[in-house]
Specification:
By secondary structure, this protein is α+β, with helices and mostly antiparallel strands. Helix content is 32%, strand content 39%.
Amino acid sequence: MEESYGIVVTTVASEAAAAQLAQLLLAQHLVACVQIEPIRSYYRWQGEIQVDPEHRLSIKCRCSDYPAIQSFLQAHHSYENPQIILVPIADGAPAYLAWIDEVTQ
């Protein structure tokens, strides 16, 4: 069976928190790459509309590693209810997908 790949998306409050999560995930060989982008989030929390600067992490991985990644993020995340979602990759360059396999084993 062919491996499937995805991008896990989460957000954190600071660039430092994002960098720390990225380093820890990479050190554990759970992920191949983490991209960090500053964003502004508008959301409803506890009955109020919130607007906050955040940093979004786009985490490249094998879908088979998602349960471990989700557990890791929940254990290391500072938010009470963090966004942790897996977006499947429908297709990709074979060499890139092979690289994900290589660095996450």
